[in-house]
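Backbone-to-sequence.
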């Protein structure tokens, strides 16, 4: 497992490309594991704060309860269509790993920019640890897809399709 900061330290250009794909729109898609073991997908917003990638959720939302029970997740960037000739397309990012639930009011406030609060029913906050980060983009000149894969402790790999 690795933090976002570890990805940035090991592969800064790749991390910037992945972040650009995540930042192309507000709403991402989160996959969690339901109580019965099946998959659940939900819309979610993410934030980068300090050296970490964070997920926030409304209090007692199904996706939050899933993550509290089973911390495994997969996250997909917003999906957009490439422009003419691929111009302006940031590609797609896919991240997977496990989350850490953060409940300390001062730490929550530091991440969200809010005031420390004893109100435990405000939100759930999760710090992401990464097992795998994938970015799919286009070659230059455009001839094929380029899939780049990063895993902690391994070199960045690229595949073409």
């Amino acid at each position: 497992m690795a933090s976002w900061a570890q990805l940035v330290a090991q592969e800064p250009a790749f991390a910037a490309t992945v972040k650009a794909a995540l930042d192309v729109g507000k709403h991402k898609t989160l996959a969690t594991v339901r109580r019965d073991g099946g998959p659940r997908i939900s819309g979610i917003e993410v934030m980068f704060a300090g050296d970490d990638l964070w997920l926030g959720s409304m209090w007692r939302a199904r996706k939050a309860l899933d993550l509290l029970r089973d911390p495994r997740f997969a996250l997909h960037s917003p999906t957009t269509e490439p422009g003419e000739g691929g111009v302006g397309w940031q590609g797609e990012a896919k991240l997977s790993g496990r989350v850490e639930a953060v409940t300390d009011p001062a730490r929550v406030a530091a991440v969200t920019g809010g005031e420390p609060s004893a109100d435990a029913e405000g939100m759930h906050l999760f710090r992401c640890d990464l097992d795998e980060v994938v970015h799919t983009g286009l070659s230059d000149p455009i001839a094929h897809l380029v899939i780049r894969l990063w895993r902690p402790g391994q070199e960045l790999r690229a595949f073409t399709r």
